[in-house]
Design a protein that fits this description.
This protein has about 100 residues and is mainly α. It is built from three helices and two strands; from the N terminus they run αββαα. About 35% of the residues lie in helices and about 10% in strands.
Length: about 100
């Protein structure tokens, strides 16, 4: 089943909020743990494709090193399901952070 493409959610506020944050992925042996390199990294999704990024809410605070591995610019020997586990964990950490910023918890 294919999901029809819709206009992506974009938020300068969400992208700006990633700056200076710790990496949400922290892939062992990859993460540089440098918040100065953190950006909002879009995760693969049904809406993701050639020249089309996922929604800004389907993204994680990610250091440059983890971002390169998640996007496939740097090869990494993933165990089955490992990439998905890190992405889901990072998404949870990022959403928790944003909700904390918004609702002050």
């Amino acid at each position: 089943m294919s999901i029809p493409k819709q206009k992506a959610f974009r938020s300068a506020q969400w992208r700006e909020a990633a700056k200076g944050q710790p990496c949400s992925l922290q892939i062992p042996g990859v993460c540089n743990h440098d918040p100065e390199t953190t950006v909002l990294a879009h995760l693969p999704s049904p809406m993701h494709g050639m020249a089309y990024k996922s929604d800004d809410w389907f993204a994680v605070d990610c250091c440059s090193a983890c971002h390169d591995v998640i996007d496939g610019r740097v090869p990494f020997d993933w165990m089955p399901g490992e990439r998905e586990r890190f992405c889901l964990q990072g998404l949870y950490v990022t959403w928790n952070r944003r909700l904390g910023m918004s609702f002050g918890y």
